Amino acid sequence: MSVIEMIYIVIAIVMTSLIWLIYLTNLRSKHSNLHKNIDNEVFVKSDERFSILKEEISNLKSNILIEKNKSFQEGFDKARSEFSLEVYPYKEEFFDGDDGLFFNDIYHEVSIGYKYQLFINGIPVLKPSIIIDNVLIERKKEVDYQKVKTALDIVENSIVNIAKNTNGILKIGSTINEKVNSKK
Hints:
By secondary structure, this protein is α+β, with helices and mostly antiparallel strands. Helices cover 55% and strands 30% of the residues. The chain folds into two domains: 40-143, no CATH class; 144-174. The N and C termini lie far apart (167 Å).
């Protein structure tokens, strides 16, 4: 082999190595770019999945609230149809005293409030409760002058009749003796 052939062989080896080196460098840069692209794709897809999952969680939470409100309303309507509370005005009067011959000693008490009772399906439950808000009391001790006048007229008529039968022995006065006392 000659020197020239050797030079050609060395040049061919160097050229082949250089081409191989360029090819490998280019392949590495493409490989590196491919890894970066794959990483970016993974991040983008994970962000999309995260957004979708976040939206699904939000939808589930809103559905839970809607179901909760719906269930509450159904229970409320059912309870309202089963339970009822009826409230009535309440008044109770108490009278005591003596409507006497000349004196009226009257005690009058009025209790005012309300009465309520719980019903389940229209059937009364427990006893009704009564709440008294106000009690009005009136007490009278008085002389009934109409009764006194009536009694005096009866006595006067009786005296006149008796006087007629006494043949003038009994004389009738023209005025009534009155005496009024007051506590001091």
